[in-house]
Structures are given as C-alpha cells and as structure tokens.
C-alpha cells in the first residue's frame, strides 16, 4: 500500500478506524489519499480520470512551489497543494494565467476564550498561511466564510454578534497589509455590521484590491434554514445582487456558501461576466459532503468559469448546548467541518481536495482563456434559451400561477 503523506494512516488500528475523531475517512485525510493508497496505479489513474476529469486531455499538472512556502507549511502544519489548469494556445490572444489561492482553517482557540483573544489568535494563525500564498506568487486569495470567528450561528445566541465588523474594520485592515505587501487581491468573508443602516448585520464578502484598496462587497444572497444552520437569526438575505468585480487579475465574484445550492445564483454571476467564482463556505459532513464536489463542478461546467470552493475545518464546541427543532437531542457542536477545499474548471476538470482535517492552502494556476474556449466548444450560452426561462419565471411569480402539467387522460378514468 502506498504511504500517503504521513497524515493518511492506512495501517491505523481497528479502534482508530472506527472512531475517526480526527475527522478523517477511515484514517485518510481525503478521498484522494484513500484511493491512491488502495488502488493499483492503473486503476487509480482511471478512477481519477472520471473523478477529477482531464484538462486539455491530460491529468492536471502539479506546480513546484518555493521552499519558503513549503517550510511554512511544514512548520505551521498546514496542507499545501498546487496545480495548473492549462488552456489551448490561441493565435490572437496571449494566455491569461493567474495564480489563485484558497485558505481553509480551524478556529485557533476554544469558543470559550475571550473574544479579543480568539480574534488575535486567528490573525496569528492565518498570517503565515497568507505569507505562504504571497511567497508562492498568488494573485488572488480567498478565505473561508466568516473566517475571523467560530461559526456560532447554530447557537442562536446573540452574543456572537460582537464579532461583526464594518467593511473597513479590523480584519479588512489586517488583510489590506498583506494585499499591499504581496500585490494580491484578497476576498474576506466576514460578519458585517452596517453602521449606516442602523448597525444591522450581514454575511458579507469584502473584495480587497491588490493595492490594499476596498473594491467592493457582496452580501450572501441565500440564507440557510437547514439542520443547525440557524443563520436567519442573525442576518437577512443580501441586497447586493450578483456583482462581478473587475480586478487586476480577472473578473471575480463570490457565491457565499449556501448559495451554491441555487443554480440561478451561479448563473447570474456568469451572466455578469465572472471568470472565477469563489464559494467561501462553512458546512458539515453529515449534511452536505456528498453534494460538495458535485455542485461546484457542475457550476463551473454550466457557466464556463472557474470555481474555488473553500470549507472550514474541525469541530467547534460551544459552551451552551442547543437544539434546532429536528428532534435531535441537544448538542454543543455542528459536527465536523470537512475542509476539502478545491478548484473546478469549465472543462470539467478539478483539483484533488485539501485535507478533511487540517488547515490548508490550495494554489492553482489557471489560464482564464479556458472560459471562452469552453463557451465556443459547448455553446452553453448560445443554446441557453433564456427567454423560455424568463417567461416561466415571470409566470411562476404571479399569485395565480398554475404548473404546466398535462395529465394522461386515462389516469383519472374509472376502469369499466
Ligand atoms: N454556511 C452555510 O450557509 N451553510 C449551510 C449548509 C450548507 O449549505 O451546506
């Protein structure tokens, strides 16, 4: 059996294999490690062809990163992976290659620690990972949903609102320094306090330009009401539409977490011209893991853009147990946030995922020319028949809407 990277424990004891308290799958830190350790090379190659697709007819190449980034990864114990999506050479356009990074992380201190300490510790934890991205020449970097705090929206307790910040608040200022230092666009998903509108809260992604300027913000469009995701206690559906931000490195958009279950949300970012859509998330295994790789990949294919999916890692225990009206006994945690951040491309290829159980930085080069090449090849925009759907949606929104169902006349006929 092939040894993975010291994290996959293929020879773990039966006890270990049964408990998986570290959040691993049967002792492996990702599905990809599990498969590569257990399948014969030829079989693994075939499985990977289907599971990860091919880019320009080939398996994704890995990128060699600078030693300084690798040293940070081993000293600070975070997963570091890097790949390259190519596009076909064009005769009239130069390649438009950008280097993009995704960071996933667990919280740095227990949720019971004083809030200022929790914030300080998360800044201290993220700094070296952002430095590794900077040292690797990352142009655009996206952090996970509500990265500065525990994902406390399961609890319904209002005291967690104290983590909210204005768009130009402490965490933005922290990241602006890195943006300037590394000439990097940074997407920061925060709990926003909108001072000018009665200090209301939003779930917001702040887009920081490569000069450290704030380009704009986007507020989460779809707020979950599923399982322990009691986020509607804290903030309303966003009011910023589907903005695409034209940056020094390409046109980007942010579809925040639960928005990934809404194909029209993905579509609208595509219609506005996005070339990369980020999906900063916080979601747990029991609820969504089988959906995770499919939804992102499908969005990338259907909309001819790249998708960067990020999920937090670990289990966050809250001081007061809670319930969510689903009959489950009261419990103090959401369950395991399974990480597994990765990229998907418009040609149906995707990277393997980062670890399910540790912090990580996923880096990928992507030639944005691939977006138009896929539009030309498959013609999804051209064949979309938007007018049909506009009509259906317009009629669906009317109170007197009736579904277009044609019943088999024999269905309701009494048998003679
Ligand atoms: N953060 C968030 O919206 N989570 C909802 C659960 C899911 O979409 O998997």
TrEMBL record:
Alphabetical UniProt keywords: Hydrolase
Protein's UniProt name: Beta-ureidopropionase
Q: InterPro entries from the xrefs?
A: Aliph_Amidase/BUP, C-N_Hydrolase, C-N_Hydrolase_sf
Q: Which GO terms describe its biological process?
A: beta-alanine biosynthetic process via 3-ureidopropionate
Enumerate the spans annotated as CN hydrolase domain. Answer: 98-368
Look at the named UniProt entry and state the broad enzyme category this protein falls under: hydrolase
Reaction equations catalysed: 3-(carbamoylamino)propanoate + H2O + 2 H(+) = beta-alanine + NH4(+) + CO2; 3-(carbamoylamino)-2-methylpropanoate + H2O + 2 H(+) = (R)-3-amino-2-methylpropanoate + NH4(+) + CO2
Pathway listed for it?
Amino-acid biosynthesis; beta-alanine biosynthesis
What family name appears in the similarity comment? Belongs to the carbon-nitrogen hydrolase superfamily. BUP family.
Query: What PANTHER family does this protein's entry cite?
Result: BETA-UREIDOPROPIONASE (PTHR43674:SF2), NITRILASE C965.09-RELATED (PTHR43674)
* SUPFAM superfamilies tied to this protein: Carbon-nitrogen hydrolase
Keyword Lipid metabolism carried by entry = no
Provide the species name: Gossypium anomalum
Q: Which GO terms describe its molecular function?
A: beta-ureidopropionase activity
EC number(s)? Answer: 3.5.1.6
């Amino acid at each position: 059996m092939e040894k993975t990277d010291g994290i996959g424990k293929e020879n773990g004891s039966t006890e270990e294999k049964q408990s998986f308290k570290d959040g691993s799958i049967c002792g492996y830190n990702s599905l990809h490690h599990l498969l590569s350790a257990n399948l014969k090379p030829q079989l693994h190659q075939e499985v990977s062809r289907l599971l990860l697709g091919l880019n320009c007819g080939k398996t994704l190449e890995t990128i060699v990163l600078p030693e300084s980034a690798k040293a940070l990864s081993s000293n600070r114990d975070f997963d570091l992976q890097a790949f390259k999506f190519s596009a076909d050479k064009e005769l009239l356009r130069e390649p438009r290659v950008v280097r993009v990074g995704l960071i996933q992380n667990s919280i740095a201190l227990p949720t019971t620690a004083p809030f200022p300490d929790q914030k300080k510790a998360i800044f201290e934890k993220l700094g070296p990972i952002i430095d590794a991205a900077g040292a690797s020449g990352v142009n655009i970097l996206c952090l996970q949903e509500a990265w500065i705090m525990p994902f406390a929206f399961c609890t319904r307790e209002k005291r967690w609102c104290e983590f909210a910040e204005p768009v130009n608040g402490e965490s933005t200022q922290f990241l602006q320094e890195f943006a300037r230092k590394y000439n990097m666009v940074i997407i920061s998903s925060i709990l926003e306090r909108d001072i000018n509108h009665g200090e209301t809260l939003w779930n917001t992604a702040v887009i920081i330009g490569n000069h450290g300027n704030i380009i704009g913000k986007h507020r989460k469009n779809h707020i979950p009401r599923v399982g322990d995701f009691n986020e509607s206690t804290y903030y309303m559906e966003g009011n910023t539409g589907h903005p695409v931000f034209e940056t020094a490195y390409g046109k980007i958009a942010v579809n925040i977490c639960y928005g990934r279950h809404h194909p029209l949300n993905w579509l609208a970012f595509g219609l506005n011209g996005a070339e990369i859509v980020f999906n900063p998330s916080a979601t747990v295994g029991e609820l969504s893991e089988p959906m995770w790789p499919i939804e992102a990949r499908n969005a990338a294919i259907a909309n001819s853009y790249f998708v960067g999916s990020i999920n937090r890692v670990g289990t966050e225990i809250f001081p007061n147990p809670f319930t969510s009206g689903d009959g489950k006994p009261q419990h103090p945690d959401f369950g395991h946030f399974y990480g597994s951040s990765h990229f998907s491309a418009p040609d149906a290829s995707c990277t393997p995922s980062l670890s399910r159980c540790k912090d990580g930085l996923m880096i990928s080069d992507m030639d944005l020319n691939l977006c138009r090449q896929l539009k030309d090849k498959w013609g999804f925009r051209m064949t979309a028949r938007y007018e049909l759907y506009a009509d259906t949606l317009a009629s669906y929104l009317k109170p007197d809407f009736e579904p277009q169902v044609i019943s088999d006349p024999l269905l309701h006929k009494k048998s003679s």
